[in-house]
User: What shape does this take?
Amino acid sequence: MAITSLKSGISTRSGMAGNTLIYPGSYDSIASTNGSVGGATFTSIPQTYTHLQLRIITKSQGAATDFYNWRFNADATSGNYRTHTLLGTGSSVSSYTNTTGNTSAFIPTENPGTNATNVFAGIIIDILDYTNTNKYTTMRTLAGWSANGSGQISLSSGVWLNTSAVTSIAVGGYNTDLSYSGNASYALYGIA
Amino acid sequence: MAKTYTPIATQKLTASAASVTFSSIPAIYTDLVLVTTVIAAAGGVEDYTPLMQVNGDTAANYSSIRLTGNGVSAATQGRTDQSFARIQTDGYLSSTIPQNSIINIMNYANTTTYKTFLQRANQADTVANAAVSVWRSTAAISSIRFYPETGGFGPGSTLTLYGILKA
Assistant: This one.
């Protein structure tokens, strides 16, 4: 007996004896890329999921430290992004905010190129209820790197002060001319 | 869209165990996620944190940075040249209140980068914790050993390993 989800349109078989149960997808891979310069941009994001998750490993090629940032729907309007962060470096704890005048939102993942070649930062960004047009879109981030004596771990919240559905996401270095290792990876997932 | 986030294996302890190992992990995913809820073995020492080793590597190839809040203050601690990745703070492992953790093992099968673990772990009655660990090896991860710093895990402890595959 076939069952079709009204939401996803995906057909499954029932769990009745004799049938092999096939679960509809609930966590789908949407797209991925191995960015090098400036990060990555995902466009034409399907509006068929409830949440998005962006999973990144990255490393700056340059000596300078860099903040990662993200921007929705190419919106560079000043003041439309706010973030709050709790960060630990192994020796000190800090909390800071970016609440005014920002044209993008920050992820505190300074992973300088002076670190050992193979040290990569990990970043996981959850973008919640991204198609809902009744409220602003919020996100949360877990990010960090460790270079055996230096590094950081951070928890962040963020909001895009716009009620539009999110159809594109750009992520990359705050210093936009920074390049990234060819092993940097960006993968976008949809959660039903 | 390609369905992903696939359960690879689950281990639910019916008796106390000194450690839990996932071996022969297929190298067909992009990331791994290990979800655990564990308690100390009854009668065991209620102390110390779960630890993790990969590929049987017991050399000093791990480092970690943790961020912890206990309701009173926030703290951070770094660990270098460890023989394991430390999952939790220096809190304790209770025989009644589970310690839960979600450990993201990023890009575990690539052979060009060190392996980064992003961790969220809680001893729910005492602390909330976030951490990052790095295993300084470019080898693909094919096995994971999860174990308490001392004593063992008790019956009812559950560990599930998932694979996430990018497009």
In short: Chain A is about 0% helix and 45% strand. Residues 1-24 of chain A have pLDDT under 50 and may be disordered. The radius of gyration of chain A is 19 Å.
